[in-house]
């Protein structure tokens, strides 16, 4: 059952618990001593944190939820049996392991820690869970469109990871020594945060196969997703993923190995919704305005 409760940010947690208990009409079936509030994140569908009164009774709702919230947020009123104890829900994030050899981002997996931990303590915990070397571990957080390295940040997780739900991690001695913006890890995450898929028809030419992410020193990448060349000697249809900030000139350079002629030897045309094509001009223009799935 979902009910809506309006509270002021300066209200203390015990007062909010009383109101929630009354709103849901739990009395006299379940005593309030066997109830507590739990923070729940709709986006990631996880219990974020248990709000036990022995720890949070002197905190206001504003302190508990971290100020004004502009994203989906809920409180659960959790109950327990008489002889049962509540399970403690610690602050949680999702961890995606970055494979530097393939350029792929691993699936985000939930990890729970203590808000009072330092980054070093979080590294140790992640290292144990994912069998990674914590001494050369880089931790990167994404906030809005910005990504930043917090591997050596001071303070506690509560201060550093405010409203952060996803972290990227890698563990590589060589890449760890590089400045973050020069690292392979940065280029991989940056690419995956600016993707666009293109369906391209190319003439007969050199054999091509699906690839892992192609990471270049300049940070421009292209990945061949699929190839349809069943009929030899006929035109081929390929699907590629590129960085939407790539220019037309850079895209043509990436296509050269697939076509077998220099960039000056072929044109790139975009097909409109009316099956009409027009040549893309302006070699310095990026693909930012091109929709993913375009032909």
Automatic annotation (TrEMBL):
Superkingdom field: Eukaryota
Protein known as: Uncharacterized protein
Species of origin: Amphimedon queenslandica (Sponge)
């Amino acid at each position: 059952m979902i009910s809506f409760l309006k509270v002021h940010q300066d209200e203390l947690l015990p007062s909010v618990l009383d109101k929630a208990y009354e709103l849901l009409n739990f009395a006299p079936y379940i005593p309030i001593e066997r109830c507590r509030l739990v923070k729940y994140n709709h986006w990631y569908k996880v219990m974020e944190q248990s709000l036990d009164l022995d720890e949070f009774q002197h905190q206001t709702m504003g302190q508990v939820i971290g100020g004004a919230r502009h994203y989906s947020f809920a409180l659960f009123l959790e109950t327990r049996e008489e002889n049962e104890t509540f399970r403690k829900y610690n602050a949680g994030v999702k961890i995606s392991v970055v494979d530097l050899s393939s350029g792929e981002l691993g699936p985000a997996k939930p990890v729970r820690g203590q808000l009072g931990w330092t980054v070093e303590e979080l590294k140790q915990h992640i290292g144990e869970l994912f069998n990674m070397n914590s001494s050369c571990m880089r931790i990167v957080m994404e906030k809005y469109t910005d990504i930043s390295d917090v591997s050596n940040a001071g303070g506690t997780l509560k201060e550093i990871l405010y409203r952060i739900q996803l972290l990227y991690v890698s563990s590589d001695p060589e890449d760890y020594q590089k400045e973050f913006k020069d690292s392979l890890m940065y280029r991989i995450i940056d690419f995956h945060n600016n993707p666009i898929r293109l369906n391209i028809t190319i003439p007969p030419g050199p054999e091509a196969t699906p690839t892992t992410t192609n990471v270049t020193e300049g940070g421009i990448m292209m990945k061949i997703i699929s190839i349809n060349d069943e009929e030899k000697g006929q035109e081929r249809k390929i699907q590629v993923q590129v960085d939407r900030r790539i220019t037309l000139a850079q895209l043509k350079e990436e296509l050269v190995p697939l076509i077998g002629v220099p960039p000056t030897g072929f044109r790139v045309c975009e097909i409109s919704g009316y099956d009409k094509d027009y040549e893309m001009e302006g070699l310095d223009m990026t693909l930012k305005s091109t929709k993913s799935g375009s032909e």
